[in-house]
Specification:
Helices cover 68% and strands 1% of the residues. It is an all-alpha fold and 599 residues long. Helix 3 packs antiparallel against helix 7.
């Protein structure tokens, strides 16, 4: 995203930027060490990128790992904190939603400054903010301070979610760009799995939830140690007029045996990309050819969150306690299976997405998730019953599961009834529901199985495809601007879901909440069928032309033929007599094959 004109601070004059940029030479000077790059030739590039690229991607994706960890760790921490601080449903929702709220702001601000200050500076600042947020949460003595720590971490999560894919994409060799960028999704799911393992290990430890948050300070410390060896994005250096440094970094990325012309072509493609982007504005998004793909990207991001998936990640331990798993530790233990499923199926998605196609995976994912949510709702009828958690007295709850959901009530196993938490008539009041009847036990295991099935189908399609489609369907000139709007849609809808889930389970029942998500997914399934085209195997130019005309994109088996005005356009270069508006329109309506192949 290009920074607004009102921001006049020169990037090159930023003290932080100057300090970090002084290390670029260190990264480049190491080019001659080892013989890995020496053996890399043009033919070798089809097999593997240089070892240096793997080091760079590893260091950058620590941000994705932290994204996953900080959004996943709250699941295990919350089941302990809510008892220690006696939190109601609304307070729990805002602890979860605090990170999302911070992420909205973090994503927007990092988008404004990433081009001006550089990707490394944003990565450096996000690492510091991750550490600061971890310390605030670890030593929080009150609810408000904990909320503040979650918001601070959210700022870093938002920055990481925006800058990590861009940073990797701009540093990765173009032959491996798609696979290397999707490693960030794998890092996010890996971070969530680590969060569940840590939560399980520390659930019964005194102040264990504080240690859960403290662990999140270590990965950003590692990233700070890596930072001096990370080069700045060549695109940022070109923007600053530092072509020689950009060429040196490209040489390091592609290996020493790649021809000089290959490096020069990549550098020229960056120049063309920047000329195209600088010639457009947000008003160009209102043009029909851009509005259709923007609608597709935003709806897919909206569906990714309104599917309710993040409630499964944020509240998985809470959901499983509601489902009858009797202790916080056992609920957290089974949450590990959910996180592991997410990570493993993400690996499967990465391996099959280019073979099966984006559209087909989305349709299968939507249908499978709908089935999973319907079954999850049925399971909760067995466990909790189809009752609203808004009774006037605790005695009106006939099942322990429903009783435990009410913040004012606890269950007495000896009396087999629900009573007020403040009652002195029963000495065995608890919110842990041991399933005794065969019906309740069946419901408990059905809930776990359907939740795992639902997460698996999410990871195969809806968890990955929206981000990939978003990177393919926009013309180069409006890609970052349209992408920022779609990403903001994701975070805003994420916040809405995270702060309403528990409240909805109280007012429309747990089953009703899951069925509501299934209904939303049904609408999304119809949208995907009619509006989302298959982009597998198409050049970016052909993908963008799928949205030309009044027909529905999905009906197009292949891109419409080029108009004669398009074929006469040169490879990104315009005559000096063309006006700014003419340049923008020409570049928006046409992108030559040679330019697209470079981007």
């Amino acid at each position: 995203m290009t920074a607004p004109a009102i921001l006049t601070l020169p990037a090159a004059n930023s003290p932080i930027s100057n300090t970090l940029n002084s290390y670029d030479g260190l990264a480049i000077k190491t080019e001659t060490s080892g013989d890995d790059d020496q053996s890399t030739s043009n033919s070798d590039m089809a097999a593997r990128p240089p070892r240096f690229v793997f080091f760079v991607v590893f260091c950058i994706t620590i941000g994705g790992l932290l994204f996953g960890y900080d959004t996943g760790v709250i699941s295990g921490a919350l089941v302990v904190i809510k008892y220690e601080w006696d939190l109601n449903s609304t307070q729990q929702e805002f602890i979860v939603g605090g990170t999302t709220l911070g992420a909205i702001a973090g994503g927007l601000f990092s988008g404004l400054f990433a081009d001006r200050w550089g990707r490394r500076v944003i990565t450096f600042l996000s690492s510091l903010v991750f550490i600061l947020g971890a310390l605030i949460m670890t030593f929080a003595k009150s609810y408000s301070v904990l909320i503040g720590g979650r918001v601070v971490v959210g700022l870093a999560v938002g920055a990481a979610s925006m800058v990590v894919p861009i940073y990797i994409g701009e540093l990765a060799p173009k032959e491996f760009r798609g696979r290397l960028v999707t490693l960030n999704v794998l890092a996010i799911t890996g971070g969530q799995l680590i969060a569940y393992l840590v939560s399980w290990a520390l659930t019964d430890v005194h102040d264990g939830w504080r240690w859960m948050f403290a662990v999140s300070a270590f990965p950003p410390a590692v990233q700070l140690c890596c930072l001096p060896w990370l080069p700045e994005s060549p695109r940022v250096l070109v923007q600053r007029g530092q072509d020689d440094r950009a060429r040196a970094i490209l040489r390091r990325i592609y290996g020493t045996k790649v021809s000089e012309s290959t490096v020069d072509d990549e550098l020229e493609s960056i120049h063309r990309s920047m000329r195209t982007e600088n010639a457009t504005s947000y008003r160009d998004l209102l043009r029909t050819i851009n509005l259709k793909p923007l609608l597709v990207a935003c709806v897919l991001q909206l569906m990714q969150q309104f599917s309710g998936f993040n409630t499964a990640m944020y509240y998985s331990a809470t959901i499983l306690k509601m489902a009858g798993f009797s202790s916080s530790k056992s609920a957290t233990q089974f949450s590990i299976a959910i996180a592991a499923t997410n990570m493993l199926m993400t690996i499967v998605a990465i391996s099959i997405i280019d073979r099966f196609g984006r559209r087909k995976l989305l349709l299968v994912s939507f249908m499978g998730m709908i089935i999973g949510l319907i079954l999850l709702g049925i399971a909760f009828i067995f466990i909790v019953g189809l009752v609203k958690i808004t009774k006037d007295t605790c005695q009106e709850y006939a099942k322990c599961g429903a009783c435990a959901l009410d913040d004012h009530c606890n269950w007495s196993p000896s009396a087999n009834l629900c009573a007020s938490k403040s009652s002195t008539l029963y000495s065995d009041l608890t919110d842990n529901c041991e399933s005794h009847s065969g019906r309740e036990k069946a419901g408990t295991w059905l809930a776990l199985a359907s939740l795992i099935f639902y997460v698996a189908l999410y990871a195969v399609g809806l968890g990955n495809v929206p981000w990939l489609v978003q990177s393919e369907i926009f013309a180069q000139g409006i890609r970052s601007k349209a992408g920022s709007i779609a990403t903001a849609t994701n975070w805003v809808s994420n916040f809405i879901i995270s702060v309403t889930f528990l409240t909805m389970t109280l007012h429309i029942t747990a089953s009703g909440t899951f069925w509501l998500y299934a209904g939303i997914l049904l609408l999304g399934l119809v949208f995907v069928f009619f509006m989302v085209p298959e982009t597998k195997g198409l050049k970016l130019e052909d993908v963008q032309r799928l949205f030309v005309g009044k027909g529905l994109p999905y009906r197009r088996q292949e891109a419409p033929p080029k108009r004669s005005s398009e074929s006469s356009t040169t490879s990104g270069r315009t005559t000096s007599s063309a006006t700014g508006g003419e340049v923008a329109n020409r570049l928006l309506n046409s992108t030559t094959v040679s330019e697209i192949n470079h981007n």
